[in-house]
Design a protein that fits this description.
With about 425 residues, this protein is of the alpha/beta class. Helices cover about 40% and strands about 10% of the residues. The protein has 17 helices and 9 strands. The strands form 3 sheets. A 5-stranded parallel β-sheet has the order 5-4-6-7-8, sandwiched between helices. Strands 1-2 form a two-stranded antiparallel sheet. It starts with a strand and ends in a 28-residue tail after the last helix.
Length: about 425
Amino acid sequence: MENCRIGDGKINKNQHDPRKLIYTKQGERWLSQFDALDQETAKLLLNSLTLVSHTEFRRNLETLILDVSTKVALYAVRELKKEPNKCQLFSNHVVPFFDQVIKSNNGKNVNSIGVSSDQGSEAIVAQIIRQLSKANPEKILNHPSKEELRAQRCDSLLFIDDYIGSGKRVSDFIYAFWRDRTIASWLSSKHIKIQVVAYSATAKGLRHLEFLKASPELIIYRDSATFTTLPIKVERKDALLKLCEKYGRKALKGRKHFWWGYQKSMSSLVFEHGCPNNTPAILWDSDDKKGKWVGIFPNRTVDTTTASVFPPEIVCGDTIQTLHDVGQTRLAMSGALMRRGAVGALILVVLGLIAKGQRKRSTICYATGLNSKDCELLLSKCIKWKFLTPERRITPRGLSELSAAKQTSFSPKGYLAVGSDYYYPRQLRETTYD
């Protein structure tokens, strides 16, 4: 499980604080565009972002890739060509993948990125794939052609992306392979499978992919919270939505579908290599180029000064503030978070969240700073100790544990050493409700 430090009632990982974003030159310029009465909500918007550095992204994406099947073909997910449709302005049918790519001179590979000048994250992912294939030539193939897939007898197609927001781009990419008769035949006969690997994804994006005919296996490192699933009070969520609408009119005017991010995703995750368009439009600039609005990530880019506040690793949020926000004031003010050790404190935070109805895994990942795998491990401990049901509902025993924690007096002395994995459930206490 990821290491966390307990100190001053907060769980932190390093000295880099993403909340410093507002104090950068670009942050101050962005904030100055808001009315005085809206600036606190604007600060909340920035402070709620999850900032993913190059190091954090690359290291963990590579680990996911190396943990999968034995003989794999890797492809960077990108926008693909659609078939022309005389009856409609836009077509929903993607051209089959191998009908629109360019083969290398030896016929073994196809182009790893599109011909568009705006290649976005696909260029970063393609570079990662290229490096991994050089280091692991017997296991990983870099964008192989259909003929090379047959010759090498690959058992899996790995589609690599940085972020799955709405799920549309990945589903189009999968469909482009599904439309190829040979690939569809291999999938139907179980000679090959499709796996989608991404650093992060929203629950909405994952649900979109679960119903595809190709039945892809979904592998992500971190669940992505959105501004609508953050562990904050409903009033503050409503304030964020209204802020994005009010100033979205200035940033993108009539393009209403981007005020809250693409398909109203309201994503709260930003990469150092670029800001997804699933985030609210007021974060990433105007389209009219007339200078009426300046995003903190202009044209979805991250400048050098702004990048300096991206932490090398994902940091846990302000635990005390989170507990206050969900109505666990007594737990936030108790000394239990400092006296139960790192894992014990995380368990109390999880129980405190779930007791207030915050059961989504993305919400728990955001509040604890844990990745999806470690979050599931923590939840399984809570289920094993009968603090939670398998449906992530708090049990009478879990309520008893919380009640005891709330009665723990605050004292900086006598708590477990930093990083301790020990935790002693108070399973014999009488059940109490709060």
